[in-house]
Design a protein that fits this description.
- With about 425 residues, the chain is α+β, with helices and mostly antiparallel strands.
- The chain has helices at about 5-15, 25-35, 65, 110-115, 155-175, 195-200, 205-210, 215-230, 245-255, 265-270, 300-305, 310, 345, 350-365, 370-380, 385-400, 405-410, and strands at about 40-45, 45-50, 60, 75-85, 85-90, 95-105, 115-120, 135, 140-150, 185, 235-240, 275, 280-285, 290, 295, 325-330, 335-345.
- The radius of gyration is 23 Å and the shape is globular.
């Protein structure tokens, strides 16, 4: 049975009882005032937590003209990991599998063929033997490894998923770093920020590192990645397609500011969206792409990865090199906000951050979405629904144990 018209009317009537004291235009006024008066810099309890890198600015450019701008980079590479999502089996194993792939623009077929696969497994049975060294196939283009995840958090599925994804991505990036000459764009943040949430049950992320060698391996890989690319003088950036952080909103709330936004992305959307009044209502201007200038951030997880004592991993560069700089780009055609991150080892160079800014904004304008290297890496790394189902069947045969399904798995088999 589906919803009848009377049900829709009832739901709409219920929703009409919800009253907002502040309308959308007042929210925009709050966003505008916050942008103008509170981000240069934004203070936390111990000093600035967000401040402009250079001039605090907003930029707009015609989408079509921006898309035709020449690239500041001769080549660009993208990196992504795809997973089968965590699966639980009746023998007690919880498992996820991730494969990482790197794209090249212009295309490099040998590089596109290469894969790094990590299978992360958790079991409460101490007699279960698992964990392997690297194994290779496909004439060396494929390599894989099994890792055993110790208890880290209440949600074991989240842990096996995160470790598989981060280990595959970081090892693949380090393995192929020598093939990147101009720019590497990670699909997502430049650091594995999900690990910060796992530290909730520990005194700090540094304690978690000492207790779990896989977490230490992940963090060290990303630190070495920054150092390797800094040594090469090739920028390493992250393109966050759907930023979900609320760290800026929380920091503003702590300073006593009204924060009627659900996320940082919602705040930047109101700061960057341009609208025109047509006599009856406001219409969004969709001809121009809009973006902010660069900011440095120690908000939320950014602060953890900038602090050597908190991170618990030895580093070769000065602490400020690992701080996160970012800018936000808003595409009015899709009404979406994207975030671009760059370690300060690169962002302190104005020419470098300007080149990354010009490249990303031109690509977003041309693609109406992620830059081509990121989209291509996503396509290479993705494991389709049919492939996932076949992999699960292979795993069931290998374990001689069926997947532990519930009613939702039967009702929504492709979820």
């Amino acid at each position: 049975m589906t919803l009848d018209p009377v049900h829709f009317d009832g739901i709409a009537d219920l929703a009409s009882q919800i009253r907002h004291e502040v309308d959308a235009e007042e929210h925009r006024d709050v966003a505008e005032e916050t942008w103008a008066n509170y981000l240069d810099p934004l203070y936390g309890d111990d000093g600035p937590v967000l401040e402009p890198l250079g001039e605090q600015r907003r930029c707009v450019a015609d989408v079509e003209e921006l898309a035709l701008q020449p690239s500041p980079f001769d080549t660009a590479h993208g990196l992504d990991s795809g997973t089968i999502n965590p699966k639980t089996f009746k023998n007690g194993l919880v498992l996820d599998l991730a494969q990482a792939a790197m794209s090249a623009t212009p295309s490099d077929l040998d590089l596109h063929r290469s894969r790094t696969t990590i299978t992360s497994v958790h079991s409460n049975d101490a007699t279960v033997k698992m964990g392997t060294d690297w194994r290779k196939r496909d004439e060396g283009y494929w390599r894989g490894r099994i890792v055993h995840t110790a208890p880290l958090a209440r949600d074991q599925e989240r842990v096996v998923h995160g470790l598989a994804l981060y280990l595959a991505e970081s090892h693949h990036a380090l393995e192929h770093a020598g093939e990147v000459d101009d720019l590497l764009l990670l699909d997502g943040p430049v650091y594995p920020k999900q690990l910060v949430n796992w530290a909730d049950r520990h005194a700090s992320l540094a304690d978690l590192v000492t207790e779990n060698e896989l977490v230490a391996e992940v963090l060290e890989n990303y630190v070495r990645l920054v150092e390797r690319f800094a040594e090469k003088d090739v920028p390493l950036a992250g393109f966050v397609k759907s930023p979900a952080s609320q760290a800026l909103v929380r920091a503003l709330r702590d300073r006593g500011r009204p924060t009627p936004w659900a996320s940082d992305a919602a705040f930047f959307s109101q700061v960057l969206e341009r609208r025109e009044f047509d006599g009856d209502d406001y219409e969004r201007v969709t001809d121009d792409l809009a973006w902010t200038g660069w900011f440095t951030s120690t908000l939320g997880a950014d602060g953890v990865f900038a602090d050597a004592s908190e991170l618990g991993v030895e580093r070769e560069l000065p602490a400020e090199c690992y701080e996160v700089a970012f800018f936000v780009v808003y595409d009015p055609r899709t009404d979406l906000v994207h975030k671009v991150e760059l370690p300060c080892a690169f962002a302190e160079d104005e020419d470098c951050r300007d080149a990354v800014e010009r490249y990303v904004t031109s690509q977003v304008a041309a693609e109406a979405g992620p830059p081509k290297p990121v989209a291509k890496a996503d396509e290479l790394a993705r494991i389709g629904a049919t492939e996932k189902a076949e992999l699960v069947r292979k795993l069931e045969q290998s374990f001689d144990s069926r997947r532990d399904e519930n009613y939702d798995d039967q009702r929504w088999p492709d979820a």
